[in-house]
Amino acid sequence: MAAKRVFEVNESSFVDLKAELVRKESQVKREKLGAEQKITRQPKKPPVWAKVKKETKAAKPSAVPTKQVELSLEEQQTLQKSRQALEAKAKLYEKMARGEIE
C-alpha cells in the first residue's frame, strides 16, 4: 500500500491559491477579449468651431492692412480733438483723486 501524503495547509496558503486563481482568470478573460476586440475605431472628427477658428485666423492678417488705411484730414482733426478732451478729463480726475478740487 502506498503511503498517504499529508500536506500542511493553513489559511494563508488558501488565500494565496485564491489570489493566484483570480489572477489567472482575469488574464484568460483579457486574452479572450483581446482576441475578440480587434476592431479599430475611426478617429473622432474635429469640432465644427475648430475649422471656424482656423479660417478666422487666416483671414485676420489680410484684414489688418485694410484697417491701416490713411485717415482723411477731417478724421485726423476729430481724433485729435477727442484725444485732447480725454486728456483734459484725465487731468481733472487726477486732481479730484488728490483732493485739490472739491
Protein traits:
102 residues, mainly alpha, 71% helix, elongated
Describe the structure.
- By secondary structure, the protein is mostly helical.
- 71% of the residues lie in helices and 0% in strands.
- The chain has helices at residues 11-36, 48-67, 73-98.
- It is elongated.
- It starts with 10 loop residues before the first helix and ends with a helix.
What can be said about this structure in brief?
With 102 residues, this protein is an all-alpha fold. It is built from three helices and no strands.
Indicate the structural class: mainly alpha
Strand fraction equals: under 5%
The amount of helix comes to over 70%
Give the helix tally: 3
Mean pLDDT: 79
Q: Count of DSSP E strands?
A: 0
* Spatial gap, N to C terminus: 121 Å
What would you report as the Rg, rounded to the nearest angstrom?
Answer: 41 Å
Tell me the series of helices and strands, N- to C-terminal: HHH
- Shape label: elongated
Which residues form runs of ≥5 with pLDDT under 50?
none
Largest sheet: none
GO cellular component, one term: nucleus
InterPro entries: CCDC174-like
Region (Disordered): 32-64
Keywords: Coiled coil
List the helices and strands and how they pair.
Blueprint lengths: L10 H26 L11 H20 L5 H26 L4
